[in-house]
Structures are given as C-alpha cells and as structure tokens.
Amino acid sequence: MSIKYVGRHDVTQEQMDAALRCGAQRASGHAFAMRHDGRPLRQGLREISGDVLDLAGARPLEDPALETPVSREVLLTAAECALGELDLGCFPEGDWEVPLPFVDETLSSDEIVYAEGREPLSPATTARAWVRALALCVISGLIWERDRVIGPMLHEDHAPALRDGVPYSARDAVSAPADLAGMDALCAYLTIEQGRLPGALLGPVPFARPGLEARKRVVERLDAAGALDADQRLLRA
C-alpha cells in the first residue's frame, strides 16, 4: 500500500485569528448555555473540549511546540473540561469547579446545580474517560501543578469508582476489561505516597515511568484483558 502525501495549504494570519475568535465564541456560548439555559453539563464540557482541541490541532502551523500563552490556554481548557466531565460522571453529588482559561471563565457547583438526569445516555462514564482526562492533563502540563493533586485524585478516587461501575451515579457504566486494564496500567505512572494522615500524597514527581516489577504486573493485567487496541498495546512496552 502506498501513502499519498498531501501538501499543507497556506493559512493567513487573519484566518488563524478568526478561527481563534470563533473558537472562543463557541466555548463561551457553551458555557453560557450550561449556566443559563440548562445545557447538560457533561455534554457541554465535552463539546468545549472538542472545540478547543480542534483549535489545538491547527495551532502547530503558527506555534509548532504549542508553547505560546494562547496554545497553553487552549490545551489547559481541554484538560479541565475532561477532568470536569469525569468528575461529574463519577461523583454527581459532589462539589465541582471547572476553570476555562481560554475564555477566562469558571463553572462551578456554587452557581450551577448538576442534574444528572438531563445528560444523554451515551457516552457513559467509563475507564476511557479516565484515560482521556489523564492524557490531556499530561499533554497540557496540568498534571505538574502540584497544588491540584490530580494524580492522587485520579488514582485514589476516580479509578476505584470506575472499577466499581460508578456506584455514586444513577447511570449504569460498565468499562470493558481492556479499558480497565489500560487505566490500571496508567495508574502505575502516577506517583502516589501514603502519609501519616489518611489520604494519598504526590510523589517526588507527579508522573513517571514505573519500575520493572510494576511494569511486569501491568503487562500481566493487560495480557489477561483480552484484545487490546493500539494505545493499550503500547503500555506493554
């Protein structure tokens, strides 16, 4: 099979600026609808995340390393939305807050009451949502903000809830064995320590490749999970 290479088309600065303005308007529109029009929150956060990730996909033309403030805000907003969607799916009765740095807004339980029954039945909150949230936290750099303790939250709160089928939610959510194995494999990369008081603490670095014995256990769990997708197979390395 031959691969056809397609040349990248030229995009003017004016077009890129217009795309950013349009993306910001769409994100603000979603936030307004969630705040004032009863838009289902998980659905709205998912839509914002998708819209800003489309912008992130276009940013490398101007910012190949995605290091400018605008690119960082776009990626951080996608990560915050993914975390918020996961949190609401696992703990619908809990307090929550979702910063949206790209549009300089914050959504929270202080002003919006979450109505789980308004959410579409699909997609359910499964281990795939956990993996997506972690991936965006790593890509955006949010995982390295130690005061957010994202690693312990994902490891000690969300992962167990997903293994148990999100028992705090009224919605059924059953994760596929391979997705659970992939989530458990990535849990091994979250450096967690137990302190003198109850609760997990961040390790010296929030995210790191586990040691040899831990990787062996990861491979065993993945092998026992059945058919794996391409990303899950990479975790065997």
Automatic annotation (TrEMBL):
Q: From the Swiss-Prot or TrEMBL record, give the protein name.
A: Uncharacterized protein
